[in-house]
Amino acid sequence: MNKNAGLFAMLTSMVFWGFGNPFSDYAVQAFSSGEMFVVEVGTGTIGFFAIVLLVPRIRGNIGRIPWKICLPLGFIMPGFCYYLGNIGYKYGTVTTGVILMSCEAIFMAVGGVFVLKESLPLKSIAAVCLGMLGVIVVGISGQSSNPETLGLTTHVLGFTVSAGLVGAGAFLLSGALSAAFGLLVRKYASTTDVVGLTLGQLVSAFIFAVIIMVTQHVDVVSLYRQTSYFWAATAAGMLGIAFAFLLFNQASENVTARQTALLLNLIPVIAITIGAIIGRGLPTPVQAIGAVIVLVSLFALETKELEVYETPA
Questions:
Q1: In the structure, how many helices (H) and strands (E) does the chain have?
Q2: Which of 39, 83, 233, 248 has the fewest CB atoms lying closer than 10 Å?
């Protein structure tokens, strides 16, 4: 894959992730977070393996799966990251979700100081602080303006908590775990075959999905009868796991870190647009201000810091 093809593949993966998020948000209207996770990860994993088996050029990667590193990484991403994202969508909206989860880059910058012993210049610290301000604005606005959860509470560890707060917290934790996954890959699996790594990750996530299916008594047949929601969950799995993971990993060796980071900012833009089209709401004026603050901070952080990891393509 040459540079231009890699850039197009990376761009396409972001579009697929952008489309996958609002489909998840739509499906959890009828499904529990666990039911959504089972369908999404199940179809995404099966779809990914089917694609690999059908493409001779990458079929041989099946024999190069680094199981020792893949099993724990798969429980983090897509495992807990996607499961927490679905909890967030259960108690929030795609607008709040994609903005809060896009703070992965902020968490990665801070985590890099502790995990990879990287330095964080003053300008980057300012960008991180600006981003967290935007997160607070988006989170509070999302909690107070979502008609589906306004005034509703849920129980967490015996405490009664605002449903909107649970949703915002789940989104942020998903973004933090996604950053942790990126840091662990850079530290322990930077030279690992990317397709083999993803195959192992998805096997691990599939095991996680089976555990959820058994412990939460998920009846896939009954889910299938809820036609529109089931196919929305399936679309989320195919777009957000099978196609997006494959294209992203295939492109990662031919696209610079800075290009990848900047393209990641397309995901919330696409997701919010598609969410509005399928009736999942537009951001409020306050959320829009918070989103701009977050995106500005991400742009400042990524263009300044991720040049360190840029390699010739």
A1: 16, 2
A2: 248
Query: 3-class DSSP state for residue 162?
Result: strand
Residue 299 φ then ψ, to 5°: -60, -45
Distance of alpha carbon 78 from alpha carbon 46, whole angstroms: 14
Output the CA torsion 23→29→30→34 (10° steps): 80
Instruction: Specify the residue for token string 């991720």.
Output: 306
pTM beyond cutoff 0.90: no
**Where along the chain do its domains lie?**
3-309
Average pLDDT over residues 73-84: 95
CB 44 within 8 A of CB 204: no
Three-state secondary-structure class, residue 29: coil
Residue 259 has pLDDT above 80, yes or no: no
pLDDT of residue 147: 66
Using CA atoms, how far apart are residues 272 and 38, in angstroms rounded to an integer? Answer: 24
Query: Are 194 and 246 contacting, i.e. CB atoms less than 8 angstroms apart?
Result: no
8 A C-beta contact, residue 107 and residue 179: yes
Q: In the prediction, which pLDDT does 228 show?
A: 94
Question: Both tokens of residue 196?
Answer: 């083999």
Task: Give the three-state DSSP class for 279.
Answer: coil
- Least Cα distance to 33 among 138, 166, 132 occurs for 166
Backbone torsions φ then ψ of 159, nearest 5 degrees = -105, 145
Q: By three-state DSSP, how is residue 67 classified?
A: helix
